[in-house]
Each structure stands twice: as C-alpha cells, then as structure tokens.
Design goal:
Largest interface: A-B, 53 and 53 residues
Mean pLDDT of chain A: 95
Distance between the termini of chain A: 13 Å
Shape of chain A: globular
Oligomer: homodimer
Low-confidence stretches of chain A: none
Largest sheet of chain A: 10 strands, antiparallel
Chain lengths: ~775, ~775
C-alpha cells in the first residue's frame, strides 16, 4: 500500500530512509509538525529544495477577490486564504563556501524520523560537498504541545573527518516566494508577499519581526532566540534587514567537535493588539521556551503524548501498515486540534495550503467524533469556535432569507467563502453536522456547562434555520427542497435523506434541550410554540423510499435518474469532476462520497437491518470515492452489514490516504478527516461502537480475517474504557471511573474494572457487493495475512 | 404608458419633441438605426452628451476572460463581447469658436423623428451659443436596407439670422472611450480600446481606416466620403492621424444659405480577408453609395419598407399607444434581421451592448415566429447561421458527453459564452427551440430546399442530442433530468414539461424528416434503428401531472415546493434576482417568465382546453415577469382561455417594453424579442392564429373591449393573407396566391380572394386570475376606451 520505498512500516514511527525529491512535497505534509496553533511543514532546514514552503498560524489569512463570470445576489465578494507566514525553521549552512544543498554534491545518507510518541521530527544527513568536504547534519524539531506559541529546533553540524570552515545562518524570513499555484492571476497578486513589514529588530542572539496583512487586518509576530554551543573560535552576529532577520555563526570545525545550535521560535497574531504588544508577546514566549530549555520542551512533549496515547491508542495485530497508519493519523488529528483553542480545525490541519486553509463539515462530521472519544476538550473548543461565529452565521441566514443561523460551508474566520453556491451554501447539512457534533460531545462527556452555554445556542439557531428552510406540503409532510447533501456529485435535490434525517434530529434535540433549560431558552426567545413547531417538523420529515427497488433514494427521484456509464469510464478519468461537467454528474446516479450510507451510520436507528443491507448493496456500485470523506463511512457500514473484508479494505484506504498519497494531493496537506476516519473505521466499524444521541454506548465487534486482534481505548462519561477484540470474543474493561452499562451485540452488559469477555456471534457470509469498475478498494486480505 | 413627455403617440412615427438628457440613453436605443449588419445607436451627431456611444457590426466581438471563484470542468474560459467599432456618425460643429453642445448655451428647440415608413431618423435643432449666435442644425440619418454595408447622413447648418463662422468636422473615430460599465476590471481592460490600428488613409473628401481586434482575430474597416454643398468661400481639408480621420469644412455662413454635407459611410469586417482587401471593400461600398446618391438611398429605403409593410402591417383601432408601439416593434425587428444574412440576431439587435451582444433562444422562440410570417427570408437566414455553427455545437456536445449537437445558450460566433452553467448550458431547450423554428419556417413557406439542406441536419443533430440526454426509466418512460427550462427562477429540474414536450416534437419530427429524405439521412448516418429510437423516446416522454391540484407542474415536484412569499416581497425587491439568492428562488414556486404557459402555446395540442385554463389560472399568481420574454406568451394564452382584457394588458406590456422603458434597461439596447412578441400577442393572441407543425393555419379571433378593430397581414405558403377582426366578426381575404384551407374558431373555412366574414362566438367571462401583488400588468382598459 505504501508504494514508495521512502517510508518504512514501523509501529510508532514514520521513517524515511532516503531522500526522494519526487515525493518531497508529500513528505513535507507527512512530516509537518503542529499543535493546532502553529504549523510547520516538514521543509528541509536549509529551505531548498522544497515542494512547498509552509509556516501557518491558525486563522491567519488574507482576503482575495472572488471573481464570477456571471455574478448573482449574495455571492461572497472575497475569500479568505491561509497564508505562509514568517518562516522560522530556516537554518542555512555553508561548508567551505559551498551551500549545503542536497541537489549538489553527494548525499551519502539521509534519514528522517517522525516519532509519534515523542512528538519530534529528527533528521540525520551525511553530505559531501562538490569540493569533497563531508559533513554530518543532525536536526530535531518540535512544535510544543505544552507551550502553544513555541517551536524549537536542535541543530548540529560536524565534519565527518578533517576540518571544515562552516557558516550557519538561522533566519526568520517573511514573504518567501512560493511556487506558482496556477491560480487566477488576481488571486496570485493578492497572495504574493501578503505581509507588510512593521518591525524587524535584533538583539544579541535574538530577533523579532512584526508584519501585518494588507487586507484582512491581521498583525503577525515572530521571534527567535538561540543557544549556540560552538567549539573553539566562532563568530556570532545578528542582523535584521527588510523581511529577513538572521543569526550568523561562523567557525572552523573539526571532526568530532560539532557546532550545536538550539533555536527557540515563537509566534503570535492578533486582529486587535498593537505592534508593541505583539512584539512583547512573542519575545516573552521565546523567553519562556529558553527558560524551559530544549531538554525540558522535549520531556514535556513526551509527557503530553504519553497521556494522550494512554487514552487514545489503538492496537491492530495482523496488519502492520494499518497499525502504523492509524497511529500516524491519530497523531496528526491531535496535532490539528490539541491547541486550536476556539479556533477552527481546517480540512488540512496546518499541514499545507490545500482548500485555501478552510474548515468544512469534515471537522464536525469526521474529526470531532474521533476527538470526542480521545481528546474531548479539543472537540469542545472547535464547537466553541463555531459558536463564536454565530453572529456571522445569523447575518448569513438573513441574507438567505432564513431564520436562525447558517454556518459557512467553507471559511477560516466564519464568513462564507464558497464561490460556487450549489456545492457551497446549498450544502445546508453542515448546520445539522455542527448540531450533531455538539450532541455527541455532550453525550460522551456529560459536560452540562457546555450543553447549556454552547450546545443550546447552537441547536436553537440551527433548528430555527431548518424550520425556515423546510415547509409542510399539501399532505402535511415536512420537505426540505433544493439543497445539496454530502455527495458532491449531486446538487440542489429535494429531500436528501441524510439532510432530512439530520435536520429532524437537530430540531427534535433542540426542542428537548429547550425543555431542559427553560430560562436560557427564554433568553433565546424560544417560545413553547416555536419548540412545538420543531418537534412537529421533525416528526413529519419526508424520507423518500423507492418501493420498486426497496431502497432509499439518496434524495427524491435519485433512483429514477440514469446510472452513470461506469463501464465506459476510463481509470484515468477519475476523479470524475476533473473530466466531466457538473451538469452530467448531477443528473445521474453516481456518488462521490457516502451520503445515504452516512445516514445509515449517523442515523442508524432510522433504518432496519434489512434496509441497511439493501441500501449499502445498492450504493456500493454507484460510489466512486472521489472524496477522502467516504472510505471510513463505507468501512463502518460494511462492517455493520457483515462485509468484514470490505470493511478492512476501506479502513486501509482511510488510514493510508496520506502515507500512500492515494488522492495524489497529499502535497497540499494531509486529509485530517480521513485520518480521523480511520479511527472511526476501526472503533465504530470493526468495533461496532455506537453512541451519540442514543443515551448509551454499545459495541458489536467483529474482525476481518486479516486482523487477529484489535484493542482500543476511549473516553466516555468520565470513564476510560479498554476494549480488546479477537476473532471469537471481546473483552471490556474500565481503566478508570464508575461501572458503565453498555451492550455487546445487542445484549446488555456492564463494563467494570474487572475485564469481562463475551463471545462474538457468527454470521453467514453475504456476497460481496461490487464497486464501480476500477474503483474497488485495494484488498488488504493478502497483505493482512502476510504480516 | 409612455410616461415621459419626450415621446409623442403617432401611428407611423416616433417623435421626441424635446431633448431630455435623463432619457438620452434610452432614446439612443429607441432611435437606433440598423439593417441587421450595421447598427448605429441614436447618438447625437456631435457625439456629446451621450448615454452610451455605439456603433456595432453584426458578429464583430472581442474575447474576454471568464473568471470563476471556483472553476469546473468544461467551463468556458473566454467570452465574446460585442464591441463599439469605429464611429462614423460623428459630425462635430464649431460656431464662432464655440462647440455645438446642447449642455451649453440655449437649446431653443430640438426634435427627433423616427419615420417607420421612410426608415430614416431626422433631427432638427435650433441652438444659441453661449456667445449668442443662433444656428439651425438639421440632420437625417439612414442605415440602408438595400446596400448592406452603407449608412448615410444628410447634415445641414445655417445661422438663424446674421452670419456665423462655422467649422464642421465629420469624423471616423475608433476606440472611443466608453462610460464605466461597472464590470470586472479584467473585462474592462480587455474591452478598453479593443481595436488596433492597421491603416488610416485619407484622400480628397474621403477617408478609410482598418483596425483589427487584439484577441478575436477580426479585421474591421470603415470608410467615409462626402458631398459638400457650401455657399461662398469654404475651406475643405481632410486628415487622418491615429484612431481619427477627419474632414473639416470651414466657412462663413449667412442666414438662409446653409452649409450642407452628405456623408456616406461603409463598414466591412472579416476574420480572413487581408487589410488591402478589406480597405478596397469599404471604399467600393462608399463609391456605390455615392453613385446612388442621397436621394436614391432615401427612395430605395422607402421602397423597401413599403414592400415590408404591405406584408406585415398591423392595424389596431382603439389603442393608439399599442398601434404605434407594435409598428415601432416591427420596424426594429426588421432592422435586427433584414440583412443579418447568416449571422445571428442578438437579443438587443444592434441597438446596444446589453447581454454582451449575445444571441439567446429569444431569437428562435420569439423573433423568428414573427419574421417567419412577415419577412420569412430573414428567419431562414438566422437558421442557416445556426446551421453554420453545427461543428462548434457538435464539439460542445462531445465535451458534455452527449451525441449530436448542443447549441450555445449565449454566443456571438457559436461558442458557448455562458459563465453560469445552471442558467446556461443546462437550458438545453434552446436546441428544441431551434428545431421548432426550423419546422415553423418550413410549414409557413413550403421551402423544400431549406427543409432538406438546413432543417434536416438541424433536426437530426438535435434529436440525437435529446436521445442521449434522456433515458428510459424502469417503467419505460423517457425522462430528461437535471435541466433548466425557460423559467430562470428554477434550474436543474427533472422533466420540465416545456422541455420534454419540445424535445419530443423535435425527435418525432426528425424521425419523420429522415423518412422523407432517405438519401440525405443516410449521408447523415441515420439508421432506421436510430430514427425508431427517436420515435420511441418521443412517444414515451414523461409529462408530470399533479392529480391533487389538477395542474401540470412546470417540472417534476414543482408543485410540492413552497410558494414564494409574494405577500412580503416589496415592490422595490423586483426583479427578484437582484435581491434574493438563486438558491432561494430555485427551490420555491415562483416563475420568472412563462414556462409551462409557453408549452401551452407552442405545444397547445398536448393539452385539453380545460387543462389550459386550469394551468393558466395556477401559474398566473406565481409569475412575476422579471423577464421581457413573458408578457407576450401570457397574452397569447390569456386570449385563448378567454381572458381578453388581461391579454390586452399583456399585449401592452410586450409592445411598450422599450417606449415605456418598463424594465429600466432600454438604455443598454432594445428588447427585440418582446417587440416581436407584441406581434405574436396580437396575431396569435387576439387573432388566435396557430400554425407551425399542425399542417395548417387556423384562427380563433376575439377582441378585448378596448380594441375596436384589429387587422393584420401575413405570409403563409406563398400566399399573403389579410385578416380583419371586429368584436363580432372576422373577415379573411387572400391578397395573393391560391385559395387556402384554414379554420375559424374550429370550423373549417377556405380563405379566397373574395373576403369572407364569420361571426365570432361569444364566451362566458371567467374570473380574472390574480398576479403576484404589485406585479399586475398595467390595465389598458381605461386607456383603450379613452382613445
């Protein structure tokens, strides 16, 4: 599956044994370090060669004009795009007048290791300059989980034998030139050199720079300081000119006596604070990092991760690739969310500029379910960020002629940035997805403060939206017409089943919450009549059903449409959206990503087991998975309907999305939702875990032949639970907290301190459904057995 | 109705008695002269003040980039935009060092008269310069119907009393600066100074200029020559520098002894011919015009129009405004089409830059039905132009994954220029509209050469398109999903009734034609199997019907959608598309323009009389007429279902669209389709004329109370017919040709040389349907009675 020899398969590290320039950009994403606040792509210390240089701060963006060939009322005029901020990871090296650049001379060895337990990226290189001088360069990099504003780099260089005249330049550089992204020229213009210098000051071994963006009105500060451990006679100087601040260390080095540098970096940004305030903030953060010191930061990092893994680790025996990939995924999910702190988790985290750095429904529907059970405070923080955008979402609703709040389909700071409304604003389900994430978090944590302060306002605002978006028809049924569901190969359909089911739950839950918090509801001006109208609409929601085929159409009339001509679609014509017009995709039965099947997962109680099996079998041959938001859901439902080998295959696809670069765009950043989905595929899929709004957590585990044991841990209502599954039995155990009622394959159990083991009932194998020709997931059966 | 005092109501002229600068741009459109090849806006001779200077040549355009905030496969990258070519109507005047400019000094009188029988625009002005010198300026302008490349201006100036030193400058000016059109800056850049000078030569009293466009690769030539009749001592000089060529006549004038100038203008353009060839072409055209002379051109013009009116005039007794407006409309329809000659008729003709100068379905569905019965050769020529774009339409179909040909929704030269596909490419009905126009022309003319050479290839190509666009569903019915019908407030719906009925006729007629022209069909590679598949699809076409409401939904599920909240929509919120998002419009029952009601007209045989009445009554309260392509169709069906007063009101709206500036955008050019629709409202509406594909022409006349007599003439199968209608009876008469079987109110009659009169059966008045509040058409009842 990991087709490139660059990466090794090991349980707790991602190791690149050689440098392959053709996957340099992919590796930059894979080796990105982040804490949710700062993100550093895995660029080489010396800056070049690079795939895409990248340093990101959560919510630092620039505005760019959104042009339209034909405009329309309410179209957003400008979009928010993540920008590459001041690069502080740059450490250039000159060896006997020759710049260290792996494209020249001879690279004897080059290894990079991302340690998922230590939270550090280590690089070791031995390089012979064109003039024949050999040096060893070692660097270790971290973005601190414990000091949110801080990153640090430990850097060492020494001659392999003999001596060498060495100059190390450690820099802060703003407005790096980026490779051409093939954009609209006006966009490129807006994003070229987005930062305007306000300050560049140096002092001894330190420097600080403050910039502001031209249009979005944000101020960004970066600071660095250094500890230099230099043998013998070394000169140190520091300078700051224009967009560059530089510490220069020059010396004559001898084999065995390395030059060592620790670089402490800090970032800060604000839309309000002054230049001096921001300057002081980052200088103080650097001082705090120096005080803790390199070893302290490394120790804190390991402690933090140890705690995380104690609650979140998953063990997968029998499939070493998935074992590594799921840990890699969980590490990046944590990196994306740990310190986001009331800021969004973008689709790519802070690992690359893909999708303009926007956050979508991916976060609430794929990332938060994983965080809710493994690092719940991060889930709450994202939802508090959504809540902070309620005023913008209310304005958006007004513009659309709707009540309540309508959250942006894609955004950084809350404003709608979609330039194509049929696949943007029309995808109203994001509002129910946010409500669903809030309900799931409350169910999993019993966090009543959050329920009252955050869930209630979110649910009321979205219930109002749904109530005004739908209407009762002549027969009294509640319809939601002309909206776009999760499947982006359909648009503007009536009564999308997923949307309607999620909207119904949103309205029903809002009505219930309003009953629980009467005073708060009154403050939100919710009358009993209004709550009743939500309950009524939820109860009368239209769920179309095709009686001829005995399946649920994804939306009304979907099953009447022509089937896509899969047989004559060539493999190189995927993803379809790059090779066929939307008009053609929208009007045919072809599914980009799980839509009805996602409803089977998230609103499972609305379907019978037989309906689930029939629906899954119907949609499998139509689903092309041109989105990374599909395989994990298909894994979950495949497992539920007994297609365990297929579930394993989809699990593999979700988990290996980026290590395998399955969509050929990992260069632009990681698919955080797919990585989070791999956990869901294991826990909700093979583990059969269901929770959320049903009032309890239950399991229905079953393993495919390629996995001999699956263990996972999760948080639920102030408990930590450990589940261990073998082909024949499952063992449940409380790690801490009170005994918890649960269910195993539909039988009530109680999970206690003492492990209890229950047999797994057998099932009759069903025929495996087909996928569109050429779109079958890679089989893990053989691979699984090999390990 | 004509609220502005600027225009008088007279039967054969449009007279502006005073100059009102606030309606200057509207008047420039109203007074535009054109022959379908050249179009001159009614700009003042002296160039300023202007609303919008405009000189257009049919199919001369520049390319401009079409930008997208989010791109998609197959989106057009550049659009075609009509450009303002070399202005040859400019004649500036200097009176005692003071430029003649109506904004300064005193305008004692100013009158402009468009004579609809003479085809000339006359202007008379008496002006006193700020220095107190009074002059009388008279000019007459024509664009020749008989010499396609030629326009001419007769210009005279004299002092009212005493004497004046006068300089007249007659010019050719390219790249005039235009008022800011508030466009995308990149578009503005592309269209600013679109012409690159290749040649500017002068000789004696003549000049010629050749330019080329930067991107579209067109070469444009303009030439002028003059006859100068100057009293006494006059100096004449000519110069050509840069983008200006100028004849200057300077002299001292005395009262009663005017300076007179005849300016002959010629235009030519080509995508292929060389600069010298084009130069010679326009110089030769000017020579031909000089040879014929001013009086000859004027006489030819009147002869041409006399012939036209002899076959096309409509007399409306009792409503003088409509009488004038319908003649004004027919004049402009003729101007738009007379000499287009295998070039398109744009939505605005050549009267302004609105809609980028594009041609839409307006032409085939609204303009050609009128031309077919009044000036049929122009209808044939437009369809031959469509035929000439078949190779482009075939490529378009391939790009969309379809068979046959898909004509552009909006274009100048054939390429799709729509930048918003849900209201562009998805409006596939244009293909059936073209087929329908071809069928109607053949039915009306019996032109078998056209049928074989043009109608057959058009019908085969479009039938193939429909066959591949639709599919047979599980029940064997033929569905056409995900397309946009005429109503632009809905999009991407399944089984739009209008589209399906028109597609069915298209396919059935293609199958029939293929049988008639077996050899040609074979050359087009049509097999009997293919033709059978068209017949089969046509017979099985889905026509949705709402059994609860007993009406046809415009498209599947339309009647399930929420009704637009008309009651809370304020008058100033129309047109809705400028004040509400598409998403909201598309998902509700609100109709921009006749859609199902257009099907009632063009496929009337597919509905019972009761269905027509019920459908009309259902759609009236939903139809807001935010398009000028609605009132005429509503007039036709209102008349058919017996709503005669309402039909009269809609007729008035269609006819007065531009004289009344009802949509507040006449400044950008005239609504040619609405003007043509006024004829249809009279002839097919009040006259009840039906023809087309039914094999015969029939009438079912009935007059509203405000019209005491209606007479019209039309061509049908080598005959000219005259119909005269009074409230009680209708008289039919052949003007020339053989006796013609027809029908009067369902009773077979034969129209012969001798007039025969038939009584009009009475009808019981029905309750008048309501329109959305504030969107009722202006009542003509009182106005009609007043006259």
């Amino acid at each position: 599956m990991i087709s490139h020899p660059a990466f090794n398969v090991e349980p707790w590290v991602v190791r690149e044994c050689q440098l392959h320039l053709e996957v340099l950009a992919q590796a930059e994403s894979v080796f990105a370090l982040s804490n949710g606040h700062i993100g550093l792509r895995g660029n080489l210390d010396e800056g070049e060669p690079h795939g895409l240089p990248g340093t990101y701060l959560n919510s630092v963006y620039e505005l760019r004009p959104l042009p339209y060939a034909e405009g329309g009322y309410g179209y957003p005029e400008s979009g928010q795009t993540v920008i590459n901020v001041t690069n502080g990871k740059l450490i250039r090296l000159l060896v006997d007048d020759e710049p260290f650049d792996v494209r020249y001379g001879t690279l004897r060895s080059h290894e990079r290791v991302l340690d998922l337990r230590a939270g550090i990226l280590t690089r070791t290189a031995e390089w012979v300059s064109p003039a024949g001088c050999a040096v060893r360069v070692t660097s270790t990099r971290l973005v601190s989980f414990t000091q949110r504003a801080v990153a640090a780099i430990w850097y060492e260089v020494e001659p392999v034998d003999g001596s060498a005249r060495v100059v190390v330049q450690s820099e802060l550089v703003a407005n790096e030139s980026l490779p051409d992204l093939g954009r609209d020229p006006r966009t490129t213009a807006a994003l070229e050199a987005p930062l305007v210098m306000e300050e560049n000051v140096v002092d001894s071994t330190a420097a600080a720079m403050v910039h502001r963006t031209r249009r979005s009105g944000l101020r960004v500060a970066a600071a660095m300081d250094h500890e230099v451990h230099a043998p013998g006679d070394t000169q140190i100087s520091v300078s700051g000119v224009g967009d560059v601040a530089r510490l220069t260390v020059a010396g004559l080095l001898h084999a065995g006596r390395p030059l060592r540098l620790v670089k402490f970096l800090a970032y800060g940004w604000s839309s309000q604070r002054s230049r001096p305030a921001l300057h002081d903030q980052v200088v103080a953060a650097v001082a705090a990092a120096r005080m803790r010191g390199w070893d302290g930061l490394v120790a804190d990092q390991r402690d933090f991760l140890e705690q995380f893994w104690a609650g979140a680790d998953v063990e997968v025996d029998g499939d070493a690739e998935v074992q590594q990939a799921v840990r890699f995924g969980m590490f990046h999910v944590l990196q994306a969310g740990a310190r986001a702190e009331q800021r969004p988790i973008p689709a790519k985290g802070l690992t690359g500029p893909g999708y303009d750095g926007h956050v979508f429904w991916d976060t609430e529907s794929f990332v938060l379910p994983t965080l809710t059970y493994t690092y719940p405070q991060a889930a709450a923080d994202v939802l508090r960020w959504r809540q902070s955008t309620l005023p913008i979402a209310r304005e958006h609703a007004v513009r659309l002629g709707l009540d309540g709040a309508c959250f942006a389909w894609r955004t950084i700071a809350g404003e709608e940035c979609s330039g194509y409304w049929p696949a943007g604003t029309a995808a109203f389900h994001i509002n129910a997805d946010i409500a669903d994430a809030a309900l799931r978090y409350v169910d999993a944590t019993d966090d009543r403060g959050f329920e009252r302060e955050t869930a209630l306002p979110l649910l009321v605002a979205t219930a109002r939206l749904w109530r005004s978006l739908g209407h009762h028809d002549l027969d009294g049924r509640f319809r939601i017409d002309g909206v776009t569901g999760p499947d982006e190969y359909s648009a503007l359909a009536d009564n999308n089943v997923y949307t309607n089911l999620m909207a119904a739950r949103n309205m029903a839950a809002a009505a219930e919450l309003v009953g629980q918090y009467a005073d708060d509801a009154e403050a939100l001006e919710v009358s009993p009549e209004e709550a009743a109208s939500w309950r009524d609409a939820a109860a009368a929601i239209v769920i179309p059903y095709d009686h001829r085929l005995k399946v649920h159409p994804q939306a009304e009339a979907f099953t009447d449409h022509a089937r896509w001509d899969f047989e004559h679609t060539k493999p190189e014509q995927y993803p379809l959206l790059l090779n066929f017009p939307y008009f053609d995709l929208y009007r045919k039965q072809v599914v980009k990503q799980a839509d009805l099947v996602l409803a089977l997962h998230l609103r499972g109680e609305a379907f019978t087991a037989e309906e689930k099996a029939r629906n899954f079998a119907y949609y499998e041959p139509l689903t092309v998975r041109d989105s990374s938001l599909s395989a994990s859901t298909q894994a979950v439902i495949a497992a539920e309907v007994g297609q365990l080998e297929l579930a394993h295959d989809y699990l593999g696809e979700a988990a290996l999305m980026d290590l395998g670069d399955l969509e050929h765009n990992t260069r632009d950043g990681l698919h955080i939702a797919s990585l989070a989905g791999a956990w869901t595929a294991l826990v909700a899929g093979l583990g059969g875990m269901r929770a959320g709004t049903t009032g309890a957590i239950s399991f229905a585990p079953r393993l495919p032949s390629g996995i001999s044991r699956l263990s996972f841990r999760l948080f639920y209502r102030s408990r930590r639970i450990a589940v261990s599954i073998t082909p024949d039995a499952a063992t449940y155990r409380l790690i801490d907290g009170l005994a918890l009622p649960s269910a195993h394959h539909g039988v009530s159990i109680v999970i206690r301190d003492e492990p209890s083991t229950y047999p797994i009932p057998g099932i009759a194998p069903l025929p495996r459904p087909r996928q569109p020709p050429g779109r079958e997931p890679v089989s893990r059966h053989v691979r699984g057995s090999e390990d």
